[in-house]
Amino acid sequence: MRRREFIALISGASAWPLAALAQQSPMPVIGFVSARSPDDSAPLVTAFRRGLGEHGFVEGQTVTVEYRWAYGQYDRLPQLAAELARRPVAVLVSTGGEPAALAAKAATATIPIVFAVGGDPVKQGLVASYNRPGGNATGISGLTATLEAKRLGLLHELVPQATTVGVLLNPNFPQFDNQLKETQQAAEALRLEMHILRANSDSELEGAFITVPQRRIAALAVAADPFFDTRRDKLAGLAARHRVPAMYQFREYAVAGGLMSYGINIGDVYREVGVYAGRILKGTKPEDLPVLQPTKFELVINLKTAKALNLTIPPTLLARADELIE
């Protein structure tokens, strides 16, 4: 072999690793659209990343995540979901309940979707059934929007002398009609006079609480809603200012100073979303992943808030509490 030919051969061989590297596929991209905000969702995103990690995906190293947040403004979600679908992404994750999931479903019929909702995804048209979702979507139903009657019952148990109660609902939330019906039936069964307070903006939240003393509302149930989640500190503050015992859906409300919460561990739901997203990235089809439901619910009571309201927690309720915040 001539010297010139040998040098050319060596030079070409040294370039092979670089050429092979250039031809490697880029990191997969996950689109993450939420009805909530990055601030109130920070621990939940950590749980989502933990679920991804269980299948070997680390954000920034083996997978890229593009985040879009609606900050409780549901009308922004269709545009945000469509933007991610055009990217395009390998998986479209929707969190923050039905508004985000419905926007994701409308944005694409081909990109796999993993959702986290609080109601029945079959009734919402997201999947064909729990065991066989069909189509391009699957995920987790946290049942949060189906526990309004249970929360009202616990609130009544805590404040049995309250014969007039309020229920705070967001009329723009897709589960509004179901929540309204469920709470009305529960109030009737408990022989309570119930006032419906509606709010889907900060000013309406302020206005709703102003009516609490006017209507002599002795206790308040805050319905499950992503918009309310983005304002949980505000809600806890308003309840404290107006000195009204209030019930919420997630532990985070009680940590923020709310009196009591009953529902799922929302961090577990986000971890499962990450697990499902990781499985899809590895080749599993959404139609082969059944919709999951929680089996554990937690009752959390903030004793400091109860003391500030001069409330005595019934021993039976204390015994059933999963956590007491002091």
What are the SSEs and their pairings?
Blueprint: H1 3-23, E1 29-34, H2 42-53, E2 64-69, H3 77-85, E3 91-95, H4 98-107, E4 113-117, E5 137-141, H5 148-158, E6 164-169, H6 176-189, E7 193-198, H7 202-214, E8 219-222, H8 226-229, H9 232-241, E9 246-248, H10 251-255, E10 260-263, H11 266-281, E11 298-302, H12 303-308, H13 315-320, E12 323-325
Parallel strand pairs: 1-2, 1-3, 3-4, 4-5, 6-7, 6-8, 8-9, 9-10, 11-12
Antiparallel strand pairs: 10-11
Helix pairs in contact: 2-11, 3-4, 5-6
The share of residues in helices is 40-55%
Number of helices: 13
Structural class: alpha/beta
Strand content is 15-25%
Number of strands: 12
Major β-sheet, in short? 7 strands, mixed
Identify the strand order in the major beta sheet. Answer: 7-6-8-9-10-11-12
Task: Describe the structure concisely.
The protein is of the alpha/beta class. Helices cover 42% and strands 18% of the residues. The protein has 13 helices and 12 strands.
Explain what you see.
With about 325 residues, the protein is an alpha/beta fold. It has two domains: about 30-145 and about 265-290, Response regulator (Rossmann fold), CATH 3.40.50.2300; about 145-265 and about 300-325, Rossmann fold (3-Layer(aba) Sandwich). It is built from 13 helices and twelve strands. It has helices spanning about 5-25, 40-55, 75-85, 100-105, 150-160, 175-190, 200-215, 225-230, 230-240, 250-255, 265-280, 305-310, 315-320, and strands at about 30-35, 65-70, 90-95, 115, 135-140, 165-170, 195-200, 220, 245-250, 260-265, 300, 325. It has a seven-stranded mixed β-sheet, with helices on both faces. The longest helix is centred in the first third of the chain and has 21 residues, at about 5-25.
